Amino acid sequence: MATTGNASVATGTTAKRKPVFVKVEQLKPGTTGHTLTVKVVDANPVVPVARKTRPGTSSMMSRPSQPSRIAECLIGDETGCILFTARNDQVDLMKPGETVILRNSRIDMYKGTMRLGVDKWGRIEATEPASFTVKEDNNLSLVEYELINVNDQ
């Protein structure tokens, strides 16, 4: 029987790509799959807003949900800084002064500004302290973007 394709697929292992680390100043709106090494400058927990139940639905029928923890963290490297939205277990890793590696992160747009986030497909890893100082005067989250539709003529 002739085999076609990659030999590693037949054995069940796949070759992993080496991560390409990017700098904060290289981030653009609407992009995904970024791997960065950053230092946490500041972490501010966001107070959850209590949701009202809709009329006509009973609270007994809805499933109980644990309130999500959210923190907005200012992170950066030697090229700039950006706001990072940490959710649930990620909040524990994002302490000021810590150095972390964000894998498979994405840029979310919030009120026209960029925010960095890591969803369930990404990962946050604590690493040894970095030697760089964060360039706080180049905050990419302060730049406001506007979506412009171009009509074909």
Explain what the structure shows:
It is a single chain. This protein has 153 residues and is mainly beta. The protein has two helices and six strands, in the order H-E-E-E-H-E-E-E. It has helices at 7-11, 90-93; strands spanning 32-46, 70-76, 81-87, 99-110, 113-117, 123-126. It has a five-stranded mixed beta barrel. A hairpin with a 4-residue loop joins strand 2 (70-76) and strand 3 (81-87). The termini are far apart. 17% of the residues are buried. The mean pLDDT is 80.
What topology emerges from the helices and strands here?
Layout: H1 7-11, E1 32-46, E2 70-76, E3 81-87, H2 90-93, E4 99-110, E5 113-117, E6 123-126
Parallel strand pairs: 3-5
Antiparallel strand pairs: 1-2, 1-4, 2-3, 4-5, 4-6
Indicate the low-confidence ranges by residue numbers.
none
What is the helix/strand order? HEEEHEEE
- What share of the residues lie within helices? under 10%
How do the strands of the widest beta sheet line up side by side? Answer: 1-2-3-5-4
Instruction: Calculate the terminal CA-CA distance, rounded to whole Å.
Output: 57 Å
Strand content: 25-35%
The number of helical elements comes to 2
Which class best fits the helix and strand makeup?
A: mainly beta
Global outline? globular
Mean pLDDT: 80
Cα-atom Rg, whole angstroms? 20 Å
Instruction: Please describe the biggest sheet, giving its number of strands, its sense, and whether it closes into a barrel.
Output: 5 strands, mixed, barrel
